[in-house]
Design brief:
With 434 residues, the chain is α/β, with parallel strands linked by helices. It has 2 domains: 4-54 and 368-413, Urease, subunit C, domain 1, CATH 2.30.40.10; 57-356, Metal-dependent hydrolases (TIM Barrel, Alpha-Beta Barrel), CATH 3.20.20.140. Helices cover 31% and strands 24% of the residues. Strands 1, 2, 3, 4, 5, 14, 15 and 16 form an 8-stranded mixed beta sheet that branches. Strands 6-7-8-9-10-11-12-13 form an 8-stranded parallel beta sheet. This is Amidohydrolase family protein.
Length: 434
């Protein structure tokens, strides 16, 4: 074998075949070899992780980068820095209520320009609204949209509002013809109550009551009815109401191409622990009870063909949770308590979302795949800084991202000479590494 760029050795390399000691050789930004741990692999650089595990980079399929009042380029830079610190190497950016819109080619190009050259891989999801035409969707797809996103309630494209049943069915048929996935925020607008005075940051318990689990059930029924006719690959994101897991399973049993996405905060944080007055816990749907959290885990673990296929941050800076940097340790903290292994976590956070988005060369440690990798110390404890803007502030988590590679290039920790330049790009200092 000719000389490799880098060889990474670990006693715990997570591949599709399981977790075992191995040596992973990188060349030209891709994985060139997965060999026994003692194999002689000539390379310019050797990295021995010891007991730290080597995982495929996380693929987060439903992320918003825009924060209200901030330039789009700055938002991409900051999100990318947070993501790679947490082992996330690819994101699919969803439409945001704060814009710029992803409803047409112009908006898509604005995001493409703003994300050019950031640390991680970026895919874009085109917005589907009541006003979307077949030409709009075709334009988005030809301009590079990896898939599409719509909402039955709020949180979609600027001014888009909730999509109705007839436009949803029509859009699903167009998306199915393009062989693209459709992500749907499935809370039904008709089941939501007005948020009381004080807003979501001031009254999280009231917001929870205003967005009940029955809104997800009614929304799922609408999505299933449309997807059954259209045959569209439909991914419900986020899925939180465990009582609806049987509805998902029944739909799949009759051949509906339906799957779902959830987030670590729904699996880790019960609503009973949410402090009144904290903006860090606002999310749509809201956090649900401890009993729902346990039932969600039961659904996730009940069946190898569970329809809950992907887990990602649900990152929504300024309008929701700020969490992309803590996806892996937060999920691992909860998964480990339930006796799960890193291979299960990698399926949910890497392989399955890459498959959903059609990223065939990502999400797995196999020869030929892109060398997007994460060194993760699964036994290390860390305390999230108390000033972190997300819901894990002050909590002790198990597991720490030690290093992140994208295309074989080390991007976290940053080279010693880079922090000043990176801070200048962000308009201020970067968040401290945990």
């Amino acid at each position: 074998m000719s000389q490799l760029d880098t060889v990474i050795r670990s006693r715990r390399v997570v591949t599709p075949d399981g977790t075992a000691p191995a040596a992973v050789g990188l060349r030209g930004g891709r994985i060139a070899a997965v060999a026994p741990p003692g194999a002689r692999l000539p390379a310019r650089e050797e990295v021995d992780l010891g007991e730290a595990a080597l995982l495929p980079g996380l693929v987060d399929p439903d992320v918003v980068v825009q924060a209200p009042g901030r330039p789009l380029r700055e938002c991409y830079l900051r999100t990318a820095a947070e993501a790679v610190r947490g082992g996330v190497t690819s994101v699919a950016v969803a439409p945001s209520a704060v814009g710029p819109p992803l409803t047409g080619e112009a908006g898509l190009q604005e995001h493409q320009s703003a994300s050019a050259g950031v640390l991680l891989h970026v895919s874009l999801l085109g917005a589907v609204t009541d006003r979307s035409t077949p030409a709009d969707l075709a334009e988005l797809r030809s301009a590079g949209a990896a898939g599409f996103h719509c909402s039955l309630s709020d949180g979609g494209a600027p001014g888009g509002g909730p999509i109705g049943d007839a436009p949803l069915r029509k859009a699903m048929m167009e998306v199915a013809a393009m062989e693209a996935p459709l992500l749907v925020h499935a809370e039904d607008a008709g089941e939501l109550a007005p948020v009381p005075p004080g807003g979501p940051a001031a009254l999280p318990s009231a917001v929870s009551a205003a967005r009940p689990a029955r809104a997800e059930r009614r929304g799922l029924e609408r999505v299933i009815a449309a997807a059954r006719v259209a045959g569209t690959r439909t991914h419900v994101s986020p899925f939180t109401a465990a009582e609806c897991a049987a509805v998902l399973g029944a739909a799949r049993a009759i051949g509906v191409a339906l799957s779902a996405h959830t987030c670590p905060h729904y699996l880790c944080l019960p609503a009973e622990a949410v402090p009144e007055g904290s903006p860090a816990f606002r999310c749509r749907p809201p956090l649900r009870s401890g009993a729902n959290r346990d039932a969600l885990w039961s659904a996730l673990l009940s069946d190898a063909d569970c329809p809950i296929r992907t887990i990602g941050s649900g990152h929504r800076p300024g309008t929701g949770v700020w969490a992309i940097g803590w996806t892996l340790p937060a999920l691992w903290t909860a998964a480990r308590r339930r006796g799960l292994d890193l291979a299960a976590v990698a399926r949910w956070t890497s392989a399955n979302p890459a498959e959903l988005l059609g990223l065939a060369d990502k999400g797995r440690i196999v020869p030929g795949a892109e060398a997007d990798l994460v060194a993760f110390a699964p036994d290390a404890a860390q305390t999230v800084p108390g000033d972190d803007p997300g819901p894990y502030a002050g909590r002790t988590l198990t597991g720490r991202v030690e290093r992140t590679w994208i295309g074989g290039r080390s991007v976290f920790p940053a080279p010693a000479a880079a922090p000043r330049a990176r801070a200048a790009e962000h308009g201020g200092p970067l968040p401290a590494s945990p």
